[in-house]
Design brief:
The chain has twelve helices and ten strands. It is of the alpha/beta class. The chain has a single domain, classed as Rossmann fold. Helix 7 links the parallel strand 8 and strand 9. Helix 1 crosses helix 11 and helix 7 runs parallel beside helix 8.
Length: 320
């Protein structure tokens, strides 16, 4: 589907209550707490008073290769520099690469947690700025195809661990597989990473379509990565928002764009976060601004549910 050609898209039906994912969360629960947060232009400078941010943010995408893990890692570092206790969960269970992106070597992973060999706290890695990382595995088919029981067990482990952190960033796999949808729906907030590539936009729309039509989830943010200009970033978002509004009945919120920057690729090759490798590069400044928007008072108030990840087996009771 071309984002400028809507003729082949059918009107989305209203999701039925029985098809909606049932999250275990106190109705109307909110939690606010004042945290010292650096200003958007000074990641390590003066502090200000910000409303407590959302506890869990799923960073997801319809298509692979759009920079989802890159965004997760660097936003996590930027938030940690703002005085927040940050957990990054590598939820790309079968093709994990958060540890690889940062040049870390895990002694154990989520596979050992699920087998009962390790507690989840035992597999934590420490990344830049004190970010804590839960590493997953790469190349194990059983991890990529977890059933409902195991996925709920994994979420129960995350639930326990997340209590010690201010914000958890969940780096999902790409696509619409059950595990991707489970992690995304379990989070307080959904950040969809797209690019100007038409295939990336088509897949971002497909992801939001499944979330909306099957589970009734119509709340999402979008950041456009690899934009060659501010105009291209804005145009890309408008095209995506226009289609979701027309066919799904809602428009996602824009969290801006990240510029195409050779320093991003250079930092990945050197297995370093770009915020550390090239802190004044355009993409680094844009990532820091993205982190600031995620914890901005107005944004946080709109999403301030701040509850743990749901751990009950009711998490995956949704059915087609």
């Amino acid at each position: 589907m071309s984002m400028n050609d809507d003729e082949n898209v059918t009107e989305a039906p209203q999701a039925s209550p029985t098809a909606r994912l049932r999250l275990v969360r106190p109705a109307g629960e909110t939690a606010r707490r004042e945290l010292p947060v650096a200003s958007a232009g000074d990641a390590q400078g003066t502090t200000g008073e910000f409303t407590r941010p959302v506890r869990t943010i799923a960073v997801t995408s319809g298509k692979g290769g759009v920079g989802k893990t890159f965004v997760t890692v660097n936003v996590g570092i930027a938030l940690a520099r703002r005085g927040l206790r940050v957990l990054v969960v590598d939820a790309d269970l079968g093709l994990a690469n958060v540890d690889t992106m940062l040049g870390l070597a895990p002694g154990a992973t989520l596979r050992q947690v699920l087998s009962g060999e390790r507690a989840i706290g035992d597999v934590l890695l420490e990344g830049p700025a004190g970010v804590r990382i839960v590493p997953a595995t790469s190349g194990f088919e059983d991890m990529a195809r977890l059933g409902e029981r195991k996925l709920c067990e994994l979420l129960a482990h995350f639930d326990e661990l997340a209590q010690s952190f201010d914000v958890a960033l969940i780096d999902t796999a790409a696509g619409i597989a059950p595990a991707v949808l489970g992690f995304t729906l379990a989070a307080d907030r959904k950040l969809v990473v797209a690019t100007p590539d038409p295939t990336a936009l088509t897949d971002a729309y497909a992801l939001m379509k499944v979330l909306a039509t099957r589970y009734g989830e119509v709340d999402a943010d979008v950041v456009v990565n690899l934009a060659r200009s501010a105009a291209e970033g804005a145009r890309t978002f408008v095209n995506l928002a226009r289609v979701t509004q027309h066919f799904l009945g809602f428009a996602p919120r824009s969290l801006g764009h990240l510029p195409a920057d050779p320093e991003a690729a250079a930092s990945i090759r050197r297995q370093r976060a770009v915020l550390e490798y090239a802190p004044r590069a355009p993409v680094s400044l844009a990532l820091d601004a993205l982190a600031a928007r995620l914890v901005a008072p107005g944004t946080a108030a709109a999403h301030a549910r701040a509850h743990p990840l749901p751990a009950s087996s009711a998490l995956l009771e949704a059915r087609p």
